[in-house]
Amino acid sequence: MGFPLSRPRRLRQSDAWRRLARETRLSPDDFVYPMFLVPGKRVRHAVESMPGVSQFSVDQCVAEAERIAQLGVAAIILFSAPAEKDARASAFLDPDGLVPQAVKGIKAACPGLIVWTDVCLCSATDHGHCGHVLPSGAIDNDSSVETLAQVALNYARAGADAVAPSDMMDGRVLAMRRLLDRSGFATTPIVSYAAKYASAFYGPFREAADSAPAFGDRRSYQMDPANAREALREVKADLEEGADMVMVKPAGPYLDVIRRVREAVDVPVAAYQVSGEYSLIKAASERGWIDERAAAFETLTGIKRAGADLILTYFAPQMCQWLKEAR
After folding, report:
1. At a CB cut-off of 8 Å and minimum separation 6, what does 318 contact?
2. What integer pLDDT is reported at residue 210 of this predicted model?
3. Which listed residue (107, 196, 282, 304) is catalytic?
4. Assigned superfamily of 25-326
5. pTM attached to this predicted model
6. Active site annotation includes 249
7. Is 2 a residue whose pLDDT tops 70?
């Protein structure tokens, strides 16, 4: 038959051809940037385990939000580490708490920037768990769901564009949807961390959000990393309860799960490139072992190629700059 007629290299022989034939493209509109709030004023505290990431007081968070919006970042998600912690996460029910203050300030300063608020209890509890703890040490699912719904309502009242429950309690999406609807917030979307795994890649985040559990671990409510079919069950349940968007977390080790979810649902799918994924790239880059820019592009392209419509990533501002330079 002679030499094959098919020569795939024809369409990748130059950068111009590679761009023309590219199947998956990254855009600033793909990214959601996580930001961390702490008490005080004029605070920009570098997170040691996450180079390039900082904790911000509300005033500095507003200023940083303005900067990244100008870069083209489409959305942010807010986390907070309040000074006062108790067993019930009372700080997250305060209408004048860190997150409500930041939401109001950011929406006033840059109304076009979409602001999501993470809804969990861990960084406001003295035990560091995502729900209420019973005397036995077990997590009380149903009372936790009630509090989580109240936290979501608190953030919606402040003007959040979406609430994003990350706790992995059963039934929390339905509780939030019902409370939001009857409280006048029927148009506030719920972005559910539907398939959140008990991952080893969360370590640096726990420094940034001051959210490490004081005892035990979170395996009784976060998913077993060995399970993929269970992710579809979780996603289906959250959609039936009223979720508008679903998320897979982490992203990189769970590309197969992202693909399965994408093929199973017709709502937008988000994926979270978590702190450990980010810090591994940063650490290897600092040692000269890999090219940071190339690794960021490759990993984020892989997440989008797997099926993610949106990617939560700490690279978001830098990626917007790199994409602008690449035009």
Report:
1. 52, 296
2. 87
3. 196
4. Aldolase class I (3.20.20.70)
5. 0.96
6. yes
7. no
